[in-house]
Each structure stands twice: as structure tokens, then as C-alpha cells.
Design a protein that fits this description.
CATH topology of chain B: fumarase
Distance between the termini of chain B: 34 Å
Number of domains of chain B: 1
Strand order of the largest sheet of chain A: 4-2-5-10
Shape of chain B: globular
Oligomer: heterodimer
Strand content of chain B: 25-35%
Distance between the termini of chain A: 14 Å
Number of domains of chain A: 2
Structural class of chain B: alpha/beta
Number of strands of chain A: 10
CATH architecture of chain B: Alpha-Beta Barrel
CATH architecture of the largest domain in chain A: 2-Layer Sandwich
CATH topology of the largest domain in chain A: 60s Ribosomal Protein L30, Chain: A
Chain lengths: 273, 166
């Protein structure tokens, strides 16, 4: 049995918080650069210039790429042959808290959703999976709430036409409009149960920006970019950089589809121990 | 330049004083107006920036400080314009009610580079607390900005650069 101390995990989570918030994911940055090449509308191009310049500014000066450093989510894949010495969940929450304090990130978490109160740095959201093996994989996703607020779930009938599903996904982006910092990366979860589809849609954002490798993806990307929302809502070609899809087996009576939109500042960092 | 003469789509750079205010500050300001209480800041002729900055790193004026989604402030905007507010800076489109109030009060709504908080922090030369300190990042801060980049999104005639995508 491999032993990993909770304090080691705390340190790693702290580092991942800093990395994710200061350094834009390379695949997201590349997606933005190629969108910049394709863009012809002057104001849209200016917006993409600013986004790319911002990524460099953040990295160089260790500043948060976006002031909304999110309700950070930590995804844990815990190998079943690992024994964590100490309290794993508290270590993760503490790691996020200290990373966020050290990095001068934002205290955006209110302890009671109804009473609100003074915001702080905890607790982070934790998603835990037990997997085979003796490793532990940690991913920090500091997703802002401007785009999180645009999340939608729809429980379709199992006999639904694919066109209706596509319409739902495109309409979700349409209703987000300029609000959630386009160009977007659109995470889609198809299948599972209601809760699971929503989680899949978010997990879809953790994988590299997918270039369309199915007809569905290609049509969605085309449909969304036809909306002409454009960078920062200024109109233009780049409304969406990629549509990332995750599927899962589901029930004979249903077909859940969830959409979780990411802003252009798609931030996450991963480390495997 | 007079706010009422601005045109949607114009690119500007702003130097002067702006106040940050977002959800909870808006709620408090509008409640105070409703109860005929004195506001902690004088809104007459001022501009608010929908922004909750990140913590300020040592040796810097302010942390990352981009705009937040404006539509969440829609229900609070008309009363503030009535109280003398002249401009708002944020991201995304506004409601029909807000656009009507902008026209009525000859104000304007601006947007800036959304999701570019690190870059925008360079244009802030001074930051001080103005009100509601207990709200943390949602408090009202008085910012002095120099050459802060703006795009006129909705002008005093109601022209709007964010088309409603149907």
C-alpha cells in the first residue's frame, strides 16, 4: 500500500491553484491565437489582442488571469492502492485556501448561500473518484461564475431527434450571449442521470480543446459560431473555440443533456503523484 | 467629452474617478434610496464599475480587476440613474428597462476588456475603500484610473452594440 501524506497533497493543491490562475492553459491560448488569425472584424480582433496580452501580463506578473478566481473545484482520482495519511478533504480545502491567499486571488465564497455574509476562501468543491492503481491525480478548476451561471440541463425523451439536442445546446450559448466572456469553450455532458450529466459537462472542460471529430461536434461548432456573438460580444467569427463532449450510458427512459460554458479564460492545472 | 454626445461603438480611454459596485452594494444603495437614507457616496455625475477586484499583491495598486456580468445589476440600475449616476462599466447586454433609463437620464453604458483583469489593473493608479467594507471584494472602492480602455456599448440615444441574437 502506497502512503501519501495529506500535507503533501495540501502543498500540491496550493501549487495547482497558483498555476491554474496565473498561467492560461496552453490549449486555450492556442485556440485564442488561431481565432485571432481568423478574425476579420476590427473590434473583435482588438478584443482577442487584449485577451492574449492579458494572458502574458498575468503570467509575467503573477496576477490572476481573471479577478473571478471562481468557486474552485478540485477533481481527485484516488488510486485504490493509495492510503492517505491524514485528512484528505481538509488537506484539499486547506491547500486551496492557502494557495488563494498566497496568490492574492479573490475571496469569492460566502459560507451561507441565503444569508451570504463576508466572502472567504473556503470551502472548495471536491469531486472524488476511486480508480485502480496506486497514484493520485489532482486537478484544480477555478471556473468563474459569469459563465457558471449559464449552465443548463434538459431531460430529453429517449426518442428525441438529434436536431432538438443540437438546438438546445446552441440556444444555451445564444442565451448566454455576450454575458459570459466569449469566445467560449462549451462543455457538453450527454447521458447518465440529471446530476451526472451536469458533472460530465463540467468534466468535458478539463480535456484539451477538441477539434471536431464527429459530425455532431462539427455541426455544433458551426451552429454556435453562426450566432455572431463574437469575442466579448462585439460580433465576429469566434463565438466558440471548441465544443467538448463527454458521453455516458443512460436509462432506457431518458436522455439527459447538460451544457456547462467556460469563458475564454479556461483555467485548470493537473498533477499526478 | 459629454456623455450624452457619445456614440455606441466608440473606443475611449478614461482618466479620472470611478467607483466599483456589484450585486450586494447595488442592493444596499437601492434600499437606502428607497428608505430616503443618505448614500455613502454621492452618485451625482459619477460612474460605477461592476467589478470585484482580486486581492492586491504587495507593491501593486490593485489586483486583477476586470468587469463582471452587468445583467445582474439590471434591476438596480434605473433607481441609481435617477439618483444622478451617469455611467456604468460592465460586460454583456442590458435589459430594455435599463436601456430606457439610460435614454431618459442621458447616461451611457460602457464595456471594457472582459476577462482581462490582469491587463486592466495597469490602468488603475489608486484604490481606496469608499463604503461597505464588510463586503470584502464586493465593497465600494474609489478608483483613480488613467487611460482605462472603454467601448461605448449603449449610448444616450439607446443605440446598442450588443445585438440581440435571435
Amino acid at each position: 500500500m502506497r502512503i501519501i501524506t495529506a500535507s503533501k497533497i495540501c502543498d500540491i493543491v496550493e501549487q495547482l491553484c497558483l498555476q491554474a490562475n496565473f498561467i492560461l492553459r496552453p490549449d486555450a491560448l492556442n485556440g485564442l491565437k488561431s481565432a485571432h488569425k481568423r478574425e476579420t472584424k476590427p473590434l473583435a480582433k482588438k478584443a482577442l489582442d487584449a485577451i492574449i496580452a492579458n494572458a502574458f501580463e498575468a503570467k509575467r506578473n503573477k496576477l490572476a488571469i481573471c479577478q473571478d478566481t471562481g468557486l474552485p473545484a478540485v477533481f481527485v482520482e484516488l488510486g485504490q492502492e493509495v492510503r492517505v495519511k491524514g485528512n484528505l478533504k481538509s488537506a484539499i480545502i486547506k491547500g486551496v485556501e492557502s494557495g488563494y491567499k498566497k496568490g492574492n486571488l479573490r475571496d469569492s465564497i460566502v459560507s451561507d448561500p441565503l444569508l451570504r455574509g463576508k466572502p472567504g476562501f473556503k470551502p472548495a468543491i471536491i469531486h472524488m473518484d476511486i480508480v485502480p492503481g496506486s497514484k493520485i491525480k489532482l486537478t484544480v478548476l477555478p471556473k468563474g461564475f459569469g459563465c457558471e451561471n449559464k449552465t443548463q440541463l434538459k431531460m430529453f425523451k429517449p426518442t428525441v431527434k438529434i436536431e432538438e439536442i443540437k438546438k438546445f445546446i446552441v440556444d444555451t450559448v445564444r442565451s448566454a450571449g455576450a454575458d459570459a466572456c466569449p469566445p467560449y469553450v462549451v462543455g457538453v455532458g450527454i447521458g447518465g442521470s440529471a446530476d451526472y450529466a451536469v458533472l460530465l459537462a463540467k468534466k468535458a472542460l478539463l480535456t484539451k480543446l477538441q477539434s471536431p471529430n464527429s459530425q455532431l461536434q462539427a455541426e455544433l461548432l458551426r451552429g454556435i459560431n453562426k450566432l455572431n456573438i463574437g469575442p466579448m460580444g462585439f460580433g465576429g467569427r469566434a463565438t466558440c473555440l471548441a465544443v467538448n463532449i463527454k458521453k455516458h450510458p443512460t436509462h432506457i427512459a431518458g436522455l439527459p443533456v447538460a451544457v456547462n460554458i467556460s469563458c475564454h479564460a479556461l483555467r485548470s492545472a493537473t498533477k499526478t503523484l | 467629452m459629454l456623455i450624452k454626445n457619445l456614440k455606441a461603438g466608440q473606443i475611449l480611454s478614461l482618466s479620472g474617478t470611478i467607483y466599483t459596485a456589484r450585486d450586494q452594494a447595488h442592493k444596499r444603495l437601492v434600499e437606502a434610496l428607497k428608505n430616503n437614507k443618505k448614500l455613502p457616496i454621492d452618485l451625482k455625475g459619477q460612474m460605477v464599475y461592476y467589478c470585484g477586484p482580486a486581492q492586491t499583491p504587495k507593491g501593486r495598486v490593485i489586483g486583477s480587476c476586470g468587469p463582471t456580468t452587468s445583467s445582474r445589476m439590471d434591476e438596480f440600475t434605473a433607481p441609481l440613474l435617477k439618483a444622478g449616476l451617469k455611467g456604468m462599466i460592465g460586460k454583456g447586454n442590458r435589459s430594455a428597462e435599463v436601456i430606457a433609463a439610460i435614454k431618459k437620464h442621458k447616461a451611457a453604458y460602457f464595456t471594457t476588456f472582459a476577462g482581462c483583469g490582469a491587463l486592466l489593473s495597469r490602468f488603475v493608479v489608486k484604490k481606496e475603500i469608499a463604503a461597505y467594507k464588510d463586503l470584502g471584494p464586493e465593497a465600494i472602492y474609489r478608483l483613480q484610473v488613467r487611460n482605462f480602455p472603454l467601448v461605448v456599448a449603449i449610448d444616450s440615444k439607446g443605440r446598442n452594440i450588443f445585438k440581440t441574437v435571435k
